[in-house]
Amino acid sequence: MSGAVVATADRHIVVAAVALVRDGCVLTVRKRGTERFMLVGGKIEPGESPLEAALRETYEEVGLRIETATLLGDFHSEAANEPGHTLHSTVFTIESDAVPVAAAEIAEVRWTPLRGHPDDLAPMLEHHVLLVLVEAFTNR
């Protein structure tokens, strides 16, 4: 997930993200100064639900104003850009043909294939979320 994230004392990061899916691909982003692509998303602000955070981050990072999304699930993995940290992400999905534009700390946006993807993905996306997305979107 991109965006500023806050780690608790036990080095655990909690974020919310959106998997924007279209034509067998998911929108991924790469933050400035990093190499791994991840889902759009970031930290949950005080008083904000995971869904509200995910929708806000989608607007801030790629300029897409999304009104609602469907819960995909909660996922846990090692963090991509914070060595020694773990990550808990609540992920939502939407299908969209909107055109994202890199904003805020995002250096690059890319539509990444659900199958046969490059090897530059964040661990959460590559080892957990993509498996669920493939199952959810390939039989449509």
UniProtKB/TrEMBL annotation:
CDD domains: NUDIX_Hydrolase. The keyword Nucleotidyltransferase does not apply. PROSITE patterns: NUDIX (PS51462), NUDIX_BOX (PS00893). The keyword Hydrolase applies. One of its GO terms (molecular function) is hydrolase activity. Its cofactor is Mg(2+). Keywords: Hydrolase. It comes from the Bacteria. Residues 10-135 form the Nudix hydrolase domain. Belongs to the Nudix hydrolase family. This is NUDIX domain-containing protein.
